[in-house]
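Recap from last week: sequence in, structure out.
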Amino acid sequence: MLTKLTDYHQVPAFIHACGFERVFGSKALTALRAYGLEDDRVRFYLCEENGVPTAAMYLMGGVLVVSARPAADPAPVAELVRRESVGEVDTNWDQCAALQALLGGTTESSYYMVYRGGAINESFPDIGPGSLEASFAVLQRSHEYYRTHLRFDAWSADLRQKLDRGLMELYQLEVGGEVVGTGCIGSEDDESGVLVAVAVVPEFRHRGLGSRISRFLVKRILEKGKTPRLISGYDEVAELYRQVGFEPCGRWGELYL
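Predicted structure tokens:
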């Protein structure tokens, strides 16, 4: 059974389901902490089977983010996708494949990754708090997705909502006074912190700067006593993160409808 969260008494069950998959689960939990149940820009849902939580999810801007047991029944999620005309679903690969079988669409997939390296003792004087405008400019120069799918106003409004509440951290890397790289701790739960939006402008690539930003973010998360996690956009990117100390721990999927 799928229900929309309208009562804070439902939140403990939602948090329990956020633990099924730590990357999307922490993203859902951070969104709940940032927006609450009263903000109509975001809707939160809970799936239960025989009274037991099986999935937590939130819908914002046509994207449904799902933390679910891999073997959870996909039918309630598919029903929600149809009813709300969802354009993208982000979840674990088993759920993504099951939803595609019900809904059609196209998929992309790569690795969930978890940090298994040691402590990071180096200093990072070239990395400091980021500006939304400068970081978005780096992302647009670095990734087609940001040029074609995102607009600054919507992107920055979501980040500002979380930054103002201390629920995420945004950083930029400078070379000679120019912002050439960026990265975020995009979400957290009690166990994990998630690296997102790590990027370096094309003309400064192959200098180890992406790795440097990633190590800085790992150090920040470790200092909080949490485990760094991320999703690699492509299998080739996963190989770069292996060099930082990350290891694959499953597969995620995006379903586009």
